[in-house]
Design goal:
Length: 163
């Protein structure tokens, strides 16, 4: 099942948008999918912290960090909180830290890079807003699918025998 996205693209080409291939896999789960919750935040992961503390079963957190990689928007403590609350995965248009620990967790994580520097906590960021990066606009409530082939989004859930 490592190659879910090629099948989804073949079966639902008219319904999917594929993100540009700029993300690396960091989580212990390489395949994940779910309904999107968005947050836009720059070098401040306060809203990420709040969201991973909420129930996340069937959801993927999409974080638009503006492709900034000077500070990590996710570390092992927040990733562990996401696992505890049932999040399926996290996609970050920015950096993470504690990559070794995150790689052992039952959580899908894709990000641009790693950076050991934590963020400042100023309570900034916007939740449930459309975000645009990697050539695609992602809306809250969209469905995101990820595997080792990349990331795609659709407006509605996609059918596939493995889902």
């Amino acid at each position: 099942m490592l190659d879910l996205l090629p099948d989804l693209c073949d079966e639902h080409a008219d319904k999917v948008r594929v993100l540009e291939p700029c993300f690396r896999d960091f989580g212990g789960e390489q395949i994940f999918w779910g309904q999107v919750v968005t947050v836009r935040c720059y070098e401040d992961n306060s809203r990420v912290r709040e969201l991973v503390a909420t129930p996340g079963t069937g959801k993927v957190l999409v974080v638009d960090g503006g492709a900034m990689v000077r500070r990590a928007l996710l570390g092992d403590q927040l990733a562990a909180k996401a696992v505890e609350n049932g999040w399926e995965g996290i996609v970050i248009n920015g950096a993470i830290r504690d990559a070794g620990a995150i790689g052992t967790m039952v959580l899908g994580v894709k990000a641009l890079a790693t950076c050991p520097m934590k963020t400042e906590k100023r309570g900034l960021g916007e939740v449930d807003v459309p975000v645009t990066f990697a050539g695609v606009t992602i809306h809250p409530g969209d469905y995101l699918y990820a595997d080792i082939n990349g990331i795609l989004v659709a407006r509605e859930p996609l059918s596939h025998p493995l889902l």
